[in-house]
Structures
1.
Amino acid sequence: MKNTILVVGSVALDSVRTIYGRTNRALGGSAVHFSMSASQFSPVKIVGVVGRDFPAPFRRLLQRRNICLKGLQVLPGKTFHWKGRYDRGLKNAVTIATHLNVFEYFKPKLAPRHCECGVLFLANIDPDLQWDVLNQMCGPRLVACDTMNYWITLKKKSLVKLLSKVNLLFVNEEEARQLTKEHNLLRAARIITGLGPQIVVIKRGDSGAMLFYGGEVISLPARPIEKVADPTGAGDTFAGGFIGYLAACPDWRSFRVLKRAMAYGTVLSSFSVEDFSVKRTGRLSKSDINDRYKKYVKSLSID
Amino acid sequence: MKNTILVVGSVALDSVRTIYGRTNRALGGSAVHFSMSASQFSPVKIVGVVGRDFPAPFRRLLQRRNICLKGLQVLPGKTFHWKGRYDRGLKNAVTIATHLNVFEYFKPKLAPRHCECGVLFLANIDPDLQWDVLNQMCGPRLVACDTMNYWITLKKKSLVKLLSKVNLLFVNEEEARQLTKEHNLLRAARIITGLGPQIVVIKRGDSGAMLFYGGEVISLPARPIEKVADPTGAGDTFAGGFIGYLAACPDWRSFRVLKRAMAYGTVLSSFSVEDFSVKRTGRLSKSDINDRYKKYVKSLSID
């Protein structure tokens, strides 16, 4: 189970509108986007909750990618439903409605098959729940988590407690600044590593991502995309490529491995934004990924 | 003269305020920032204008870097003076005052030593003047230019005419969008190459830069900087490193050479923002540059 990833997060239905089109109750949620991406590299098990309305085809789509859904509880009621739209620049989402539905009562309870996973990804949920899950685990070799502005504002104390037990934190630029009250990202990352995580990854959307580890920083660009249809889930897809690749490596404590993980995260998220929901990541082949990975790595090689 | 660069642009006094400090009538202007950077790689000649108040130490500072000032006219009156301040994020400058002074009457007249330069950089000035200068040249092998939102709004026709004769355009993100009415940078760059320039470089500040050439795109990140003191002139310093390196190469028509030029531009501009005015670029050694260049290139190498 050393290489198996447990992801705890939302499984949702998303209704999204961008200038390129719209979806209605499409498959979404942090655990879904993460798993679609991570399962390209390592076995993934989801712990989450859906309502009785969760469509069987979505379940099958995840299972076809060998994502274990034994930890996906089905409760009476409706599945978490997010409704949002993006501005023309596709940077900022406006939430039209958030129906938590059964997700409101989500209280993850791990089975032995989950506790023994070697890698844990705590997707963006209440830090008290993240803490709860972490404490049910039997010594995972790598713990990564994500969070958001909402929890930084409302549950900073819980989040800081969690971070002391986490190896790797994913945040976006604004969250890093909000968490540390420091504008400069290098200084912000240093403050975060002081709270616990050895690795901090700052996601910057179409400006790429930065990784901080052992006093050093790596900044990699996003892959330029001609048609960004829908950025929903790009951050979780990035984390999925990153953690999926790391989980498949015997040791993650090297810059060489971490840079490759960054590149895989970048490549996976570049696919994810090309279509709505998981339409693009759901039908990716290994060779699609490897072709784009090679081109990306080559574009950064300066000789 | 094949490798000599002629730069036509402003030589100015800048009074700048950021959260890290301020300067009063410090050395500035697009031709100055460009030259300080380009002269690290190739011989540079400035064509510009100053007033009688232009301080002799500034003149000596430029000459110590072997920048030829024979084309720097001195007119009765005062030197161009820009006064501005930056917000906390150091992204947006607010102009407090622009005193064009003698620059208002700038009408560049090239001497034979200028016309025969192999490389021409038309810094951000009125596109009619840029056109005028270009037509005085004796067949330069590389013509690059910069522009700004002001000219795109007020003199688009002149700018478009100029672009048909230019090999390389430097613009920032918003200028690229404004010029093409296209939000996506890949599509915007394609539209610009349709206007003439074979190469388009889109400068993105702390998000790095993108280069478009022959239907391909390269995106490189900025070098993360812990203390950005003053971003004034970073774009011209980038162009200086880029064009300075290209001018020293026998042929610029290769991705390998263009990527190196991008990397040198990135490195030079990363120095420039670390201090006010040309304080940092004015005292750079070859080994300062090469050390940072090697580290930057290594940070992007994924094996």
2.
Amino acid sequence: MTTAYETLLEKVHELTDLEKATGVLSWDKETNMPPKGITARIDQMGTLQRLSHTLFTSDEMGERLENAAAELGDADYDSDEASLVRYLRRAYGDARKLTTDYVVRSNQISGQAREAWMKARANNEFATFQPWLEQVVVLCQELASMYGYDDEPYDALLDKFETGTKTAEVRAIFDAVKAELVPLRQAIEERGTAVSDDILHQSYDIDSQKAFARYAAEALGYDFERGHLGTVVHPFATSFSRDDARITTRWYPDFLSPSLFGTLHESGHAMYEQGTHPSLYRTPLARGTSLGIHESQSRMMENIVGRSRGFWQAHFPKLQATFPDQLGSVTAEQFYRAVNKTQPSYIRVEADELTYNFHIILRFDLEQAMLNGDLAVKDLPTAWNDKMQTLLGVVPPTDTLGCLQDPHWTRPGFGYFPTYALGNLYAAQFYETAVSQNPTIASQMAAGQTEALVAWLRQNIHQHGRKFTPRELIQRVTDSPLSHTAFMRYATAKFSDIYGL
Amino acid sequence: MTTAYETLLEKVHELTDLEKATGVLSWDKETNMPPKGITARIDQMGTLQRLSHTLFTSDEMGERLENAAAELGDADYDSDEASLVRYLRRAYGDARKLTTDYVVRSNQISGQAREAWMKARANNEFATFQPWLEQVVVLCQELASMYGYDDEPYDALLDKFETGTKTAEVRAIFDAVKAELVPLRQAIEERGTAVSDDILHQSYDIDSQKAFARYAAEALGYDFERGHLGTVVHPFATSFSRDDARITTRWYPDFLSPSLFGTLHESGHAMYEQGTHPSLYRTPLARGTSLGIHESQSRMMENIVGRSRGFWQAHFPKLQATFPDQLGSVTAEQFYRAVNKTQPSYIRVEADELTYNFHIILRFDLEQAMLNGDLAVKDLPTAWNDKMQTLLGVVPPTDTLGCLQDPHWTRPGFGYFPTYALGNLYAAQFYETAVSQNPTIASQMAAGQTEALVAWLRQNIHQHGRKFTPRELIQRVTDSPLSHTAFMRYATAKFSDIYGL
């Protein structure tokens, strides 16, 4: 006899397959599709998404879900079954709140807003984008109303990226980061230690970069038998199952860092997906639980591991052998310092491990102000530059290098940005706990090895996929809610050493 | 007000998108998917195919189709609308005849038969494959019964690959080919002119091969703005729209021909899809009309163009510059002769332009004999070797080099093989007509140029997609049914010249 849960699972498998198929089409679009294939691809992806949305939001799906819930009764909270039903109830409720009219309108506005943004950025002309951003803000406001919230509108949006996390919590944490990071950055400036990254800006053959990036990703623990490295303009990671979790990189012929550390970053994302438990196969639980936790895994591999002294003492000889002309006379220590240079800059995606957080705090503040009506869109450029001055001490000479730099605001996706900085904080808190629970992790790391760390991540984080919300996960794993303290301890120790504070 | 035809079209777009999405997943499986991604990929493709089959065979689809047919009345036979309804009625009727039980069983048997075949081929042990081939023959017999036929069972199967073409017609044409090709081959043997292809068997750098293959494909008229060249183990062409028609190639480091002519072959397939009329977008008509006509386009580009003297007189200098060490002292004429060497051999996919047809005639005969119960599967190896002796004058020393060489018989796909040889015949008949209608084609070809030929193909064949059956098309285009005579004129002239008959 088929149980109600099995009946639910049948639909879940179908929906997961549709979602993953859309993912393959999207990956192919970015990696292999010829330029003129775009029209048909948009139609194909639209059809899959429409089918998927119709199936998921049907009354029949709701019945299957409630029947399964009734059958499970008070099953163990941690079980796959209870976790899946819990997740689906939340997702089903959210999906049913979105009206078709809204989705259609939102896609239309976003498409046109993106065109306008590209033009505005190219011409350094904020006015071109302004009316579209105004519409996007209205879409965000509508979204917050549709989803509903208890305390403040931003909660409704943030919740979609970081389930259960409140704006007020994030604000308090970011305030604490700011209170400690500003003085740390000032101390570095005042100390005036020279750290040069000139060696990274040389001519680096791209095929050799690729070969080394593969080597480094494997050194972290990324499994190429269950992965693939593609070339794209805007790098990302994506997975079609735990056994097919891919990474992508953009290659620069005259700058080593972005491709190398980009690959390590995306490897961290993909390793999370590769580590989900096999029992979650073909369900929406077989994914990272939130953008913030996902970013913690990529940041851990990019920064805590990939920019550590141990990693480069172990692997720099290989890099040196790959690029003898460029790095033959450089020491591992010099390289380590070069890849950890900190300096205020205009562009978020090029920012270092410390200043990156200020770029996020700025966006978090401005999103709330626009959403709440405290900041008119027309005043955004001024507000942006004021905040840059306060937080980073530099003011971008143009809006292209300022408030027009990111594509995120072409969509009603307020609430996405803060997850980037939350990722840094989660990463440090997880890592501190990992080392305290298993000292081998630290000794391996000093030798550039990650087996023990990856095993710990798999056991404590990866295998669970989306079973727990980020708040639940950080509490379970570190016995404490998210805080800024671990990150500040990590950052202060590392940069005090490098800059001789 | 929405017309019945528009209501039909809405469903057709959805179904086409699903089919193309499945195609993208399949292409990705062959080109980029990591080995362990296979389990999830099979599930994902299975879900898309099941959704598609369910939607297409629904009563609702039948109603939409008949409502549209009624609305159209006696619309112009050549119109997109009448052609689509005509095509869909045929496809709908066929799809409704297939029982779910049959599809499930057929997929199961085919999967296991493929495993057994791989083992049998590796171990040169026909007995391992025999029981599975027996089941595949039964599946073919069931299929013929389900589809139904007037004259003989093979008709029902052939019709699925070459709509409206009868076994008796093909038999008569193949007999005529045989009657003329055997003496031509004998004359070549007796004349004894030495043609060597040793120059093709040297070390050829793969990146340079790729660059030249791209150049050659573009020289034919393949549009890379609407295409992509991927690397695979078993080459094929596929399209996701006329603006995204891809080719694939396998690269050999020490043999120039397979990759180069394979690329030209697949380019011919893809150019057919690139040439379908834009008005057929998102319908099943935006594809080649049959396997045989499709093969005529690939064979035309591979052989009639790609193995012509004019093509190599024009493009050999470029190839020579790419490979100065290997081809520096070779003339264009020597190269032209080398790529046209004819010699009996065991393996179909390695056969030359003349002997290839014998390999197909052999399989066509044996398929009918097995289907009709005139040949027991256990006697296949003997029957195979006897026919090889008769047609080609050579007998494979092992079954691995004989009846176990192709994967086709792991599926109930009898009727597929003959389309390969039909492609050669269609190609020659089309080409003869093209040249007679536009003499510029011949003069351009003598200079290695294809613009006029491609324009003619586009106008007369490509743009129609699947609007006409192969019988209708050859009659419309050449004012005559398919015959062997154009091919024999072409082959006799070309090989008499090369071999000095």
